[in-house]
Fold this sequence. Notes:
Elements: E1 6-10, H1 16-26, E2 31-35, H2 39-45, H3 59-66, E3 71-74, H4 77-83, E4 86-89, H5 109-121, E5 126-130, H6 138-149, E6 156-160, H7 170-175, E7 180-184, H8 188-201, E8 210-214, H9 215-246, H10 250-258, H11 279-292, H12 296-323, E9 332-336, H13 351-361, E10 365-369, H14 375-385, H15 391-397, E11 398-400, H16 404-408, E12 413-416, H17 421-424, H18 428-433, E13 440-443, H19 450-456, E14 459-462
Parallel strand pairs: 1-2, 1-4, 2-3, 4-5, 5-6, 7-8, 9-10, 9-12, 10-11, 12-13, 13-14
Antiparallel strand pairs: 6-7
Helix pairs in contact: 1-3, 5-6, 9-11, 9-12, 11-12, 12-13
The protein binds nicotinamide-adenine-dinucleotide and uridine-5'-diphosphate-xylopyranose.
Nicotinamide-adenine-dinucleotide binds next to helix 5.
Amino acid sequence: PLKVNKILCIGAGYVGGPTCAVIALKCPHITVTIVDLNQARIDAWNSADFALPIYEPGLEDVVRQCRGRNLFFSTDVDKGIREADLIFVSVNTPTKKSGVGAGFAADLNYVELATRQIAAVATSSKIVVEKSTVPCRTAESMRTILEANSKPNCRFDILSNPEFLAEGTAISDLFSPDRVLIGSLQTPEGKAACASLAGVYANWVPENRILTVGLWSSELSKLAANAMLAQRISSVNALSAICEATGANIDEVAHAVGYDSRVGPKFLKASVGFGGSCFQKDILNLVYLSESLHLPEVAAYWRQVVEMNEYQKRRFSKRVVDTLFNTITGKRIAVLGFAFKADTGDTRESAAITLIRDFQSERAFVNIYDPQVSETQIWSDLAEASPTVPAETIKKQVKICGSALEACRDAEAVVIATEWKEFKEIDWKEVYQHMKKPAFVFDGRLLVDAAALTAIGFKVTTIGRPSL
Ligand code: NAD
Ligand code: UDX
């Protein structure tokens, strides 16, 4: 197999950036270049004060060690393609907004454009690695495009190497992955390309954690993994509704169920609903795939995981309104957390966006505080969530605050939407003093000690527990 010396990554986002920065760190003998069309993003990766475009614990340290040594960020995609022996395609694959499959299918336009650019520019053989999450058999389309455009002495081998990192823990996930999955054609050439990529990971990943499979299995495994993870959350969230109605406690139920070694304790935390750029998109993608394969029962099964998640968000907003004496009009609600989970500044599909939109449509005033999300991002997400509401109206209803304490001042209720550790450590006694009474707390993340807050005087409502 070819020994990889130069790696290019197309797409400097949440996946391409951290993944290839870690490859550069662990493989000092390999030159890694990450390219993107977005100049501002590349400038941020290259910024002198390391104001990187994404917030991820440990990432800055990795970039500080490698940038300028064997890790480079650039917008010169063509040069990158010409020089590389192995190219990761790590571009975005959002849900299609229009056309066939709108609302379900993945928009593969970015993958296709990147593939065509590789075909047009390459003058030597390349291993092309599909890193983006794509529907089953996308590699086949990439291969067709590359082969139809290849020049003499220029062969392309396609691999699928989906990424399993979770945001907020990306660096530790990359340092010690549960597994690295590589899919290839089962031909001698395919297997050789697979061995080349496995050789890169072998610099730090134990051999028994590098799994090699067929191309299609690899592609489907990524969708399957996300669907099964999200299904656990929807299952536990469905049970949280039963707990609220019966007096059971979802934490106790999840603990008892997770103790069964066949189920396992992780990823069973009830919440306001899962968010993030992957779960919903990848499940809808699986639903679309199932429908295209004429498997309507399979499609309906997975679709329900997303529907349960929508229900969970709706149910939570309704519980807030019900508890606040059936109206929140004109009331001030503090929303703590805007990111889709803690330790990230990413807001894609964040449950907080839906909750705030619901509060706005009840004509409440909303104070928002998140330790990582920028104001610009919050305004743009809120505008996108309520396309028919003029920006001035949103700005009149919503205030973005610099601290949790500031957000809670004069509020009637606090809603915990993201499980940031600092919300656990707030001086809740002080918060209580500055709130309107009765002061309500709605814990959508099972984060705070309900008994301690009740002792202070708060009226606490926790997801998966009956109202007191
Ligand atoms: P992202 O939007 O953060 O980054 C993608 C980048 O690709 C953007 O900066 C965009 O400008 C760039 N790009 C698009 N087309 C390009 C082109 N032709 N040339 C150069 N640059 C181009 O997306 P992301 O979150 O990094 O996700 C990338 C892929 O990885 C998606 O398929 C996603 O499903 C998958 N994935 C994401 C996660 C996650 O946690 N975010 C985890 C696993 C897999
Ligand atoms: C997910 C997958 O975990 C990862 O393997 C894949 O590569 C990308 O998609 P990510 O979306 O970054 O990662 O974060 P994850 O930790 O999975 O959380 C997703 C959402 O589920 C978050 O909103 C989180 O708060 C929520 N969640 C997670 C729960 O509500 N309960 C849980 O027990 C776990």
